[in-house]
Amino acid sequence: MVSLNNKVIAFLESRMSSEMGSLIERHGGVPYSAPAMQEIYLKDSPDVRELVVDICKGQIDAMILLTGVGTRAMIEVADGMGYKEELISSFDQMTIIARSPKPARVLRQNKIHIDVMPTEPYTSQDLIESIKDMGLHNKQVAVQHYGGPNSSLIDNLKSMGAQVREVTLYMWGLPEDESPILSMIDEISAGKIDAVAFTSQPQVGNLLTIAEKAGKEKSLRDGLSGTVLLASVGPVCTRKLEQLGFDVDLEPDHPHMGSLVVAMAEYLEAH
User: Fold this and answer.
1) Nearest 10 degrees: CA dihedral of 214, 36, 271, 256?
2) Residues 174, 38, 104, CA angle at the centre, nearest 5°?
3) Same domain membership, residue 215 and residue 148
4) Residues 133, 183: one domain?
5) In 3-state terms, what secondary structure has residue 61?
6) What is the pLDDT of residues 105-123, one digit of tens each?
7) pTM
């Protein structure tokens, strides 16, 4: 097994922080956790509750579920309303589209069928390709967002003639405690961090926002443009980093945390 050889690996993962830390330790690295986000749930949103009711009334033809967290949250909202069984039963009569294995896993746990799931790396473009010939013209299509609207997906659905209904079940906010991020920036500047791993696209913007507020953006950019390995979990995250002026050193073949850690170990052993 390739080893990280006691290299210090900073990562910005929040929800699966302990799993990421364990992966790094298992591969011989030293984890440095600096969570860049927190999930802000919108379960009490009238839009969410209205969508649950409309699904149960048979008014939605297709549902596109983008994340596991959002899928689970929607089922929990229905459960809180006393509509869980009715929602699941209504899903049986609809076209169900899962963007990746994460929402697919939640659907299967609840014995909900899946009609379509794109291939890796599960980007919006992969999703669009997988549904473009489904005949969604004049169909009522609900889309579960996360963080913010996916304009590319929505624009393409509308161009297919779909009647689109958007709902956001949670958003990504800044972490309650920003001090680990600020300490990480200082450690990068001091040459004490060997690699920084980004595991989702919203982490990138949040990191810059926190750095800007603290007057540390230049320090962050200088540090990440030096000898620090900048690793991205997949193409969506890579695109965001590059848009904001960062050079990504590696992206694994498969967009998973485990693949990312192995790719970092291989890169650091070779360099």
Assistant:
1) -160
2) 135
3) no
4) no
5) coil
6) 999 999 999 999 999 889 8
7) 0.84
**24-60 burial, b if ≥16 CB within 10 A, otherwise e?**
beebebbbbbbbbbbbeebeeeeebbebbeebbeeeb
**Number of structural domains found in the chain:** 2
Domain boundary at 132, 152, 172, which? Answer: 172
Q: Are residues 63 and 162 in the same domain?
A: yes
Q: Residues 107, 96: contact at Cβ < 8 Å?
A: yes
In this structure, are 192 and 115 located in the same domain? no
| β-bridge pairing 38-41 and 170-173 | antiparallel
84 Rama class: left (phi>0) / alpha (psi -120 to 50) / beta: alpha
In the block, which residue shows the tokens 């839009």? 47
Strand ranges inside 179-251, DSSP E:
195-198, 229-232
pLDDT at 43: 82
Task: List the chain residues with pLDDT less than 50.
Answer: none
Please identify which residue in the block is written with the tokens 């929402």: 103
Q: Whole domain around residue 137: which residue ranges?
A: 40-172
The answer to whether residue 2 sits within a structural domain is: no
Residues 45 and 160 in one domain: yes
Closest CA to 54 of 141, 128, 146, 151: 141
End residue of a domain, out of 172, 204, 227: 172
Which residue from 179, 134, 155, 142 is spatially nearest to 57, judged by alpha carbons?
142
CATH of the domain at 142: 3.40.50.10090
Single out the residue of 78, 198, 155 nearest to residue 206, CA to CA. Answer: 198
pLDDT at 147: 65
Asked whether residue 134 falls in the same domain as residue 254, the answer is no
Chain center to CA of 9: 20
